[in-house]
């Protein structure tokens, strides 16, 4: 009985489409995650205000698998609408840093990496941030070789 009440409580406060999409994202089944997010036709009416940012974060994560440069607008929108968990903010900034590196915009990539490092209070993304900085260092070396 308590399991049923917990299930009802969770689906009341969290949109079940978002929960199932997150589940499929963790399983790396992008098609099903995208299908469940597509069930949200009007996010402003179907989601609570604090879930709007997470909606765009999930869309950005799915979009980044197929076309990373197009996912930039979703990550920026997620950050502008607000994310409450620091590791999600750091993940969005880290994704934006990767997109900026792909565009060869080192200044913006550095700024996004600094924001990601500041937001990653629990050091969950410390390895990824370090790897991205190392990648930027390699990018500098390859640019100087071709000059």
Which keywords apply here?
147 residues; mainly alpha; 9 helices
Q: How would you portray this structure in words?
A:
By secondary structure, the chain is mostly helical. It has 9 helices and no strands. The protein has helices at residues 2-13, 16-26, 30-38, 43-46, 52-66, 72-81, 86-102, 106-119, 126-145. α2 (16-26) packs antiparallel against α3 and α3 (30-38) runs antiparallel to α5 (52-66). The longest helix is centred in the last third of the chain and has 20 residues, at 126-145. The chain is globular, with a radius of gyration of 17 Å.
Low-confidence stretches: 9-13
> Please, how many helices?
9
Described by the principal axes of the CA atoms, the overall outline is: globular
| Chain-averaged pLDDT | 83
**What is the CA-CA span between the terminal residues?**
70 Å
* Helix proportion: over 70%
Strand-pairing-aware structural class: mainly alpha
Reading the helices and strands in chain order gives: HHHHHHHHH
List how many beta strands DSSP finds: 0
Major sheet size, sense and barrel closure:
none
- Radius of gyration computed on alpha carbons: 17 Å
Strand content range = under 5%
């Amino acid at each position: 009985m308590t399991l049923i009440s917990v299930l009802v409580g969770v689906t009341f406060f969290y949109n079940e489409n978002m929960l199932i999409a997150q589940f499929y994202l963790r399983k790396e089944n992008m098609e099903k995650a995208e299908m469940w997010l597509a069930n949200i036709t009007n996010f402003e009416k179907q989601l609570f205000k604090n879930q709007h940012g997470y909606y765009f974060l999930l869309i950005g994560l799915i979009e980044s698998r197929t076309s990373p440069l197009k996912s930039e607008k979703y990550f920026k929108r997620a950050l502008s609408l607000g994310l409450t968990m620091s590791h999600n903010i750091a993940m969005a900034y880290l994704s934006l840093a990767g997109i900026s590196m792909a565009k060869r915009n080192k200044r913006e990539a550095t700024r996004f990496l600094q924001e990601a490092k500041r937001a990653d209070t629990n050091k969950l993304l410390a390895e990824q941030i370090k790897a991205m900085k190392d990648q930027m260092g390699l990018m500098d070396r390859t640019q100087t070789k071709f000059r």
